[in-house]
Amino acid sequence: MSARDWEQSDDDEVDLGDDEMEDFKEKGQEINGKAVSKDAHSLKRESSVKQQVKDVSVPFVIDAPNNLKDLSSLLDGHSETEIIEIISRIRTCNSIRLAAENRRKMQVFYGVLLQYFAVLATQSPVKFKIIDTLVKPLIEMSGETPYFAAICARERLIHTRTRLCEDIKVPGKSSWPNLKTLLLLRLWSLIFPCSDFRHVVATPMLLLMCEYLMRCPIQSGRDVAVGSFLCSMVLVATKESKKFCPEAIVFLQSLLVTSFKGKLGTHLHNEINDQFMELKTLKPWLIIHEQVHDVSPVNVLEIMGMDPDAPYFSSDNFKAGVLLSVAECLRGFVIIHEELCSFPEIFLPISSLLEEILEKSELPGPLRDIFHEVVDLIKKRSEEHHASRDPLRMRKKKPEPIKQLNPKFEENYIKGLDYDPDRERAQLKKLKKRIKSENKGARRELQKDNHFLAAVKEKMRKKQEEERAEKYGQAMAFLQEQESAFKSGQLGKGKGRKRRR
């Protein structure tokens, strides 16, 4: 199975059943006109019987599906608990530890399951419970086949970015990510470590989210919500590594500008200085006109299925919820980037913008409280950075006199006497000279000792050679005498021996 097989575009038609298992309902017994609930023991026995009925429909030994159609026919019509059990049995029966060829099967199954996860996000209505059910096995299987999981994620990221570049060229078309892309990005942020300095999946994923925030124009209220959700995902991805992503901060700043009533002052406009501000502030997307009593964060998963021109996106409740998310994200970025040396230059313009919004816009009480909290936090951290900075100073150094080449003459000059006016330097020179002379004296003494020892050793060697030569001469004389006697026939003859007859 190639990496492209599991990529499923939004326009592809996949025959997947939308019917889920209906929940079992408890039956009441009516006695004397009153509904009486069942006994606890009978309820437990009935649920166990029904569970056995469900388990009967799920085989114990299941082969790993090779394509999306087989997996859909296997999982459709089952509850979340049964889906978990089916995937667990597939992984158990086709475990990599059982046989070497199972690795290929599990890689194919991982790609099919990831494709099924992506296809579920394109259905209407979206089955969020089943999608949540698939997250845990996908994370566990990614640990079993990490290389293949990384390949699948990178191929999908490349495909997504190619589609982004094509959509941006079409005027009037929304190029923001759809629900499937958002869910995949969130899944990969859970699977792969975002704390690494450089990662084959996490780094391209973070760059893609930042590119969405920088290049995509805002054309509807839904784009505003998707952008704020991407900012929160960037915050989660950079929380541990503390990487600085200016695209997210600039986007949040642009959303704050769209909630400002009136025109920005010249000084504030110069501080913001965003070249892409025109793409984000075509309309006052977040200006609140009426008082909002209940402020709650926007649920992006629910609004992704709405029409971009829905009246909900122009309501004050939606705008207040987005501003609440923006303020929460800003506070998170302030906390993780509080150690940056350039913190005041990055966040003080945002603090000034928040103060202007608080003065000239009608915000509900909870929003005002969190805006004040963010402003106070930025000012506190900026004051700490300003206090820790040292002002620029010129180097404190005595002026060096101009070197003159005029010759100096000393009257009544005495050879060997030091005429240095600096007594400490003269004393130091004297000590160095004395040390040098002492070194020379010690070297001479050592040389004399070496010569004496060498002479003694040479004398002893010559004496030993003379004694050896004398002994050698005596031995040679004795041997020559013996040889001469032997040759003359006199060797062995004596006066006491008599000749035989």
TrEMBL record:
The keyword ATP-binding does not apply. GO terms for cellular component: Noc4p-Nop14p complex; small-subunit processome. It is found in: Nucleus, Nucleolus. Residues 1-42, 482-501 are annotated as: Disordered. GO terms for biological process: maturation of SSU-rRNA. Keywords: Coiled coil, Nucleus, Ribosome biogenesis, rRNA processing. Residues 425-482 form a coiled coil. Residues 8-23 have a biased composition (Acidic residues). Its main location: nucleus. Involved in nucleolar processing of pre-18S ribosomal RNA. Has a role in the nuclear export of 40S pre-ribosomal subunit to the cytoplasm. Belongs to the NOP14 family. This is Nucleolar protein 14. It comes from Paspalum vaginatum.
